[in-house]
Structure formats: C-alpha cells, structure tokens
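Feature request, filed as a ticket because there's no other form

It would be nice if the structure record came with a short human-readable summary line next to the tokens. Right now we just get the raw output. Example of a typical job, pasted below so the devs can see what we mean:
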Amino acid sequence: MPKDYYQILGVGKGATEDDIKRAYRKLAHQHHPDKAGGNSEKFKEINEAYQVLSNKEKRSQYDRFGRVFSAGGGPSPGGDNPFGNFEFGFGFDPSNAEDLGNISDIFDAFFEGLGVRKRKSYNRGSDLEVVEEITFEEAFRGIDRNIKVKVFTSCGQCSGLGYFASEGVSECSTCSGRGEIRESRSTFFGNISQVKTCPKCSGSGQIPKKPCRECSGTGRVKVSKEIKITIAPGVANDQLIKIPKAGDAGERGAEPGDLYLRIKIADHKIFKRFNDDLFVKKEIDLLDVLLEKKIEIPTISGNKVFMVIPAGVDLRERVKISGEGMTKFGGRGRGDLYVEWEVRAPKRLNAKAKKILEDLEREIE
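Raw output as currently delivered:
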C-alpha cells in the first residue's frame, strides 16, 4: 500500500512549502536516531516524505499518481545511478548552508577517489574601501589626489614567500606533500571520506626550514601606503572607483585584492545637482525686470553668462541655459543649467516713487 506522505508529516494536502518545512524539522528533531528515544526507521520515513513533498515536480507526481517516478519512467527512489542506490534528497534543504556543505564534501570525496586533486591556492587579498571627500568644483573639473591607506603588502624580507627560499623546504609529514588530508566521518548516509586542506602546511605540501619572522610566515606585512588616484570630471556622489590590485596583498604571493574609492561630494552653497544638470536660484530686483536690464547668471565653470528677461515671461518658470551644467562622466559633454527666479520687491516707496509707479501703471499694457 502506498505511503501517505502528508499523514507522515502531519500536514494537509493544501500545505504550503513553509508548512511542510516546519513539520519536517519538528519531526526530524523528535525522531533523530542520535537522540534518546529516537527511531531510525521513523526518521528515514520522515525524510522520504519530505524529499517528495518539498520538491514541486515530485509532489505533483505524487498528488496525481500516488507515487513518484524517476526520469527513466520507473518508481523512485532506485534505478541506475552512477553513485549506486544513493539519493541526496533525504532531508536536503538547498537553502541550508550546512546541507550544501555536506553535498560539497561528498563530491570532493568522490572526485578525490577518481584521482582528481584539488588546486592548491592561498587566500586572495581582501578588497578595501576608502572614502574620499571632494568639492563640487573638483567633481566638475576632475582632480588628482594622493590618498593614504593601510594595506597588507608583500613582505620585503622574504619576497612575499613567507620563508627564505635559500634555506629550502621539506615535505609535509602530515599530508605527504599533497597539501590535503582525508578525513572520514559517520553520517546518516554512512561513512563519508572528505578531503580538506592540510592544517600543518596550509595546502602547500611543504614545510619551510626557515620561516620569515617579519611576516610570521604569511608573506605580507601591514604598511601605510600613498596611492595616486585620478578622479575623472563628472564623478557622482557616492560613486565607487575601482583601482585593480591596489588592495591587500594575498598570502604567500596570492593575488592581491582591489581598492574601491567611494566619492563623497560636499554640498555647494549655490548649486544643486540632479544627474548632469545643475539648478541655481537667482535673486533679481523687480525694477531690473521691468527695465529689461542684463542679469548675470552664476555658473560652475566661471563663464560670464548674462540674460535679459523679456516682457511677458512667467517668472515662475525655470530658464534653461544649455551646456552650462555638470561635466558628463566620461567626457561626453555637459548637462544644462536651470535658473529659478526669486523676485525682490523694494523695501519701501516714498510719495514720489509711488506717483511714478502710478503713472507707469497707466502706461503699461
């Protein structure tokens, strides 16, 4: 008689993925063979149910036919398998880092058995991030800067090796020069052999006869370093600039990390920026508008720009001055400058001024 996987997990047929996962974890914890009162057969049955109901395709087959079929058309589990009648699904949760690590260990052991050795490597250097503040004008024009950073750099005493090559090395007795060791451990699936980096030689397979004291055998030391960087015109606030291989040096000659420069642009007292466009508020006298006088507009470049506000213009509308905005990053021209007017009225008018304005009112259409 087919097993009722829903009944085994104690959930209904409409259970969600989260419901199934919660039920499985509760029951697996309760019946785990390593716990007092645990039941290995019950635990295996719970895992089998979870394997089917947590997989959308298998669950669909089970709901329709009361059983799950393999890719070859036969019932699952079973069938031809290059790993034998071994199934990875019992309780495997791909979102669980520990489960992923276990599967990785299994494959490591499998390929090691075929004679495929893992590549020996040392830790790559860390990436670093430095914040650099510049002015609005520097962002417009671009600037060269010398910045100081504390980084790991290749040790000068041992040329980054971590030991003195002239003294030689000997084969690591722990791993017999392989750089890796095999460990066996007992799991639910049985005994699994896995390959790990040798802790004694850190994967090199060799033991230096004279380690470098300056860097404690790591091949790198911490120093303060000055780096010249170029910040291109038009850089944006919070923009990251990558400087390849300028981060921490790797261990024993491994690849260095990268340096990331985060740009912070100080606020400007006049201009506001939106992408490559600039915005400025210009205070003007009402009489200058009426008399159509030339009004000087400030620009980030320092160019002299004058405007005459023609009669009939709505002073609430912005005026665009093309090509007087921010430099576009990468040297593709410039944005635009938008001017917002703030009209200033006279503070007080004497009788003569009022009389003139009254006469002017009758003349203005």
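Something like this underneath would help us a lot:
The chain has three domains: 5-95, 128-265, 272-363.
Confidence is low (pLDDT under 50) at residues 70-121.
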